[in-house]
Design brief:
By secondary structure, the protein is an alpha/beta fold. Helices cover 49% and strands 16% of the residues. It has an eight-stranded mixed beta sheet with strand order 4-5-7-6-8-9-13-14, sandwiched between helices.
Length: 604
């Protein structure tokens, strides 16, 4: 690459950040003056310390030598940091200063440890100290350190210079301590004062040293700048007019004092992007001091990589009304089919996937799908082991990892790259894991009455009927029993119960039984408290990784999802908001008009 081309790549154009990548706030002359003064006196004080046999003076001389090295390293770092960006270092060399500060802080920590160790040994083996020599040299050193500290204090912006200043301030305190020790020894002859003051000085400078060490480490590890609230940035971005959602958001400092932001912004129409970006830039600079912003706009509903008409699953342009299809999935080395029921136009790029609870099936969402199918292609799978899907030979595969794998295959089969997700209970857990995965297609998610923590009372209730015998000769008796089990879902009319619970029963060998494989209870029953806690921790971790709009719906009387868990979910993830439906337990059925309206409003 030629030099002109290289320069043009690094140049900032109109509308870009208002700074350059090269460091401009540091003053190399200040460090050079401080280096000459410190290095010149360190040799004098070192010789005097040796002849006076003073630990306080030795510690001060050691500080001076370390200071000289620190100042030299800081000066070198600033020279490097001012180098312009290159083909191999497109951000420039500003991080050299933080690296120097980190190394200097480590050296200071090592020196503190050595001084404290040496001082403690002197309590057991006192050394005779020449008080007069200590007093005179310490006084000269005090003046010298005051001058160097004043020089360095004129540059307060550079973490590198501040790290060097910590060394000098430690040296200043050392000079004061040495001066005081020399006077005390001259007047009283009490030698332990030398070691005591050395320890005191070391402890005084330890806090500043650790502070600089942590700050430089945080910067080198690309942490969020300490003065920026990452969650607040996410919330403010979502509140910018025209922004529908924010994900893949990252904030860090490219060089000290220059924060940067990258991320993905979902918008309705691409032609609105210039105006939205202008509002975002103004907000980020005014509220958070961020002026280096790189954002990728994504138009919601657009699918650049796939064409629905080319997909076997959607080749037909007919309008589906609960039609059943199958997708082939894998569990280990074996294959199984998962059924899904569809409502709406399969060529519609707006897809809503609705996933049911532990013992339910896709037909749960019939009423909701009929209400949504004019705006969405609604897909409601029977999770494997339920409804018309196949049964698994290994019951331990009836678990969220297998269910997520099947959903990934379903989305691939549909030929889409973006979906919305409605998950009830177990379906919500599947959705949370799926949404936390890299490059997840989920763009909005309604989580119906479930969270990372499941209350023990609900687990006991589920265990009382999941996989338990259920067989009735009369369908009406079977439906009545099932309605009793599902009483927490809400107060429904007989007609609503028929639509909702009727498909849950199938006739086999003259008996009305449940539609699902009783073996789905095997992994559920095998969970012990330790496994449950590990699973909860894993779910919390997954939930925190989700960066899409989420609506958490809780039944006001739910025994599975507590109000405290909902509050914690909204606290740890700024993309989540919640609503509570009164007079309903676990879980709202979404067959009532007001509940369906809630879903339609959220998904838009």
């Amino acid at each position: 690459m030629s030099a002109p081309d290289n320069h043009s790549l690094h140049a900032h154009k109109r509308g870009d950040a208002k700074h350059t990548h090269s460091k401009q706030v540091s003053n190399q002359n200040l460090l050079l003056i401080a280096l000459v003064l410190t290095l010149g006196f360190s040799g004098v004080e070192g010789a005097a310390a040796y002849f006076a046999n003073s630990l306080a003076l030795i510690s001060d001389a050691g500080h001076m030598v370390t200071d000289a090295a620190a100042l030299g390293l800081a000066l070198l770092a600033q020279i490097i940091s001012r180098r312009p960006p290159s083909a191999k270092h497109s951000f420039g060399f500003g991080r050299a200063e933080a690296l120097a500060a980190f190394v200097n802080s480590l050296a200071m920590l090592a020196l503190v440890v050595w001084i404290i160790y040496e001082a403690i040994t002197r309590f057991y083996d006192p050394h005779k100290v020449d008080g007069l020599t200590v007093t005179v040299v310490a006084a000269i050193g005090l003046v010298m350190n005051l001058l160097v500290a004043w020089v360095l204090s004129r540059d307060k912006k550079s973490v590198n210079t501040r790290a060097a200043l910590v060394h000098v301030m430690g040296d200043l305190l050392g000079s004061i301590a040495a001066l005081f020790a020399g006077v005390v020894i001259q007047l009283t002859g009490w030698m332990p004062i030398d070691a005591i003051l050395s320890i005191l000085v070391s402890l005084l400078i330890l806090k500043s040293t650790i502070s600089i060490l942590l700050e430089s480490y945080h910067f080198l590890m690309e942490g969020v700048p300490l003065h920026i609230d990452y969650l607040a940035v996410g919330r403010d971005l979502k509140n910018v007019p025209g922004v529908l959602a924010v994900h893949d958001l990252h904030v860090w400092e490219m060089t000290p004092s220059f924060p940067a932001l990258i991320g993905h912004i979902e918008i309705a129409q691409m032609q609105e992007w210039p105006a939205i970006m202008s509002r975002i830039n103004t907000m980020l600079l005014d509220k958070h001091g961020i002026d280096h912003v790189t954002l990728q706009p994504e138009e919601v509903g657009m699918d650049d990589d796939h064409d629905h008409q080319d997909s076997p699953a959607v080749a037909s342009s007919q309008f589906h009304n609960g039609d059943t299809f199958f997708v082939e999935c894998s569990s280990g080395d074996t294959k199984h089919r998962m059924a899904y029921h569809a409502w709406g136009d399969p060529s519609n790029p707006k897809v809503l996937v609705c996933v049911h609870g532990l013992t339910r099936r896709g037909s749960d969402f019939k009423t909701l799908a009929q209400a949504m199918c004019q705006d969405y292609y609604v897909v409601c799978p029977d999770v494997v082991g339920r409804g018309e899907s196949d049964r698994l030979s290994n019951p331990m595969m009836y678990a969220v990892p297998q269910y997520v794998t099947d959903m990934v295959q379903l989305v691939k089969h549909l030929g889409v790259t973006q979906i919305n997700w409605f998950g009830t209970s177990m379906g919500g857990l599947i959705g949370m894991v799926y949404a936390s995965m890299p490059h997840s297609p989920i763009r909005k998610m309604l989580i119906n009455d479930v969270g990372p923590r499941i209350e023990p009372e609900a687990i006991a209730r589920l265990g009382s009927y999941v996989g338990q015998p259920f067989a009735f000769a009369n369908r009406e008796e079977a439906l009545d029993k099932l309605n009793q089990i599902c009483a927490t879902f809400g107060d429904h009319t007989p007609e609503e119960w028929e639509v909702y619970n009727g498909p849950m029963m199938i006739q086999r060998d003259g008996k009305w039984v449940m539609h699902y494989d009783a073996d789905i209870s095997v992994p559920f029953a095998s969970v012990n408290p330790i496994m449950a806690k590990a699973g909860e921790m894993a779910m919390w971790h997954a939930f925190k990784q989700i960066h899409i709009p989420m609506l958490i719906v809780r039944g006001g009387n739910s025994d599975l999802l507590s109000a405290a868990t909902v509050a914690e979910m909204c606290k740890v993830n700024p993309y989540a908001r919640s609503i509570e439906i009164p007079n309903v337990g676990h879980a709202p059925a979404f067959v009532k008009a007001e509940q369906i309206a809630l879903a339609k409003e959220f998904f838009g």
